[in-house]
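Inputs:
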Amino acid sequence: GDSVTQMEGPVTLSEEAFLTINCTYTATGYPSLFWYVQYPGEGLQLLLKATKADDKGSNKGFEATYRKETTSFHLEKGSVQVSDSAVYFCALSASGANSKLTFGKGITLSVRP
Amino acid sequence: KAGVTQTPRYLIKTRGQQVTLSCSPISGHRSVSWYQQTPGQGLQFLFEYFSETQRNKGNFPGRFSGRQFSNSRSEMNVSTLELGDSALYLCASSARSYNEQFFGPGTRLTVL
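Outputs:
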């Protein structure tokens, strides 16, 4: 079945550091890929998405590129802020009329001033 | 436009009881999905409803059920609660079955 693997956490960075969070997936067909963010005490917010190979999703300085050859969708940001501290989830939605999301385990990011 | 709302936000029940959680999707959205979030298992898909019909179901026991009303509002029910049902239950809505999903704040269920 479909699955998403995220790098182990937690991750602690200093403000303005470069961020990379690795995500790889296993799926049949051509899934859509997503990054969601969860702030303390809140639900999930969609951060960015990509629906086909080589698409780059971007939002709020975060970027991720859909790499079909390596089945990856790594999240990057050039300069993190304290306000980026949250839990980040990589997810996929299988191709076809099916909105079920399969999530990775999530990774907690803490950014210190 | 109002976001996805879930009620109640917090709930405490005892083993063996049953519980009903409610979700109101974004206006115009016809698809509602439910997810369970626990520290051990992470985020797991429960089921999806579209136009009052269950379209997809995750790997959960029959104690977990749901329904959707003609106004797209959805409820999920858990019967004979177990300690392991303690979790954050998240609802998400989308305009159609395969569109981007928008999540509500969740209902925190604690089973004692």
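Remarks. Chain B is about 0% helix and 55% strand. Chain B touches chain A at residues 4, 31, 33, 35, 42-45, 48, 55-56, 58, 90, 92, 94, 97-106 (CB under 8 Å).
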